[in-house]
UniProtKB/TrEMBL annotation:
Signal peptide: none annotated. Belongs to the thymidylate kinase family. This is Thymidylate kinase. PANTHER family: THYMIDYLATE KINASE (PTHR10344), UMP-CMP KINASE 2, MITOCHONDRIAL (PTHR10344:SF4). Its EC number is 2.7.4.9.
Amino acid sequence: MSSGTGLFVTFEGGEGAGKSTQIRKLAESLRSRGFDVLLTREPGGSPGAEAVRHVLLSGAAQPFGTRMEAILFAAARNDHVEGVIRPALNGGRVVLCDRFMDSSRVYQGITGNLEPEFIETLQRVAINGVMPDCTVILDLPATAGLERASRRGAAVAIAPDRFEREELETHEKRREAFLDIAAREPERCHVLDALRPEDVIAADVLTIVERRLPLKTKIAETVHE
Ligand SMILES: Nc1ncnc2c1ncn2[C@@H]1O[C@H](COP(=O)(O)OP(=O)(O)OP(=O)(O)O)[C@@H](O)[C@H]1O
Ligand SMILES: Cc1cn([C@H]2C[C@H](O)[C@@H](COP(=O)(O)O)O2)c(=O)[nH]c1=O
């Protein structure tokens, strides 16, 4: 459970699953209902973590090995948590984060072949008690997600990042690894079929998140009194 009186929701899944799309839609729906929403992402979300994002996604850290990359992701996460996420939750805000610790478990742990104990130790240090209240996992075949990501990249002339460029088999393993996490943590994780139309998925996401809202968060007006 997250710290403070806010609500912490993370979005996870493979490349091109629709995380950014769904986060934007959810933020819009919640804001229109008066909630004070912070939309953020990983790696990144704070000035220090955004600097590390560039190092990681460009592949500049790749020659130093997966362990080094995992530690950099954790360092960026800790900066983001302490500088941005924890203060927002303490202020009663709804925090929506595009990827978080489950991405490290999957990308660095499972497909990076790092020992689970090492990854879990890093996560404990990185999140320092700030656990997501709820995680939406957008699930689709890797081929479909990569196709979407490549169409999106072509439209804005952005090349695939260091992780997107990996083998199809690796992306399929990641899909299975996210589903395994969901099976192990059913209270926190909700798996949605991401092949459906955006608005159908968005309605499911809103239902999931609304169930958790009244208990913990404040509406925007009361936060800024
Ligand atoms: N349900 C959907 N059906 C069809 N296309 C979609 C759907 N959701 C998103 N898209 C499109 O797929 C592309 C990828 O979506 P988006 O950027 O939201 O994914 P993402 O999970 O954040 O990707 P990444 O992890 O690679 O950043 C975008 O062009 C988006 O418009
Ligand atoms: C948080 C996190 C991310 N990654 C990888 C997953 C993606 O390939 C990129 C982020 O790109 P996006 O377009 O912003 O989704 O980084 C990772 O390997 N480990 C992590 O902890």
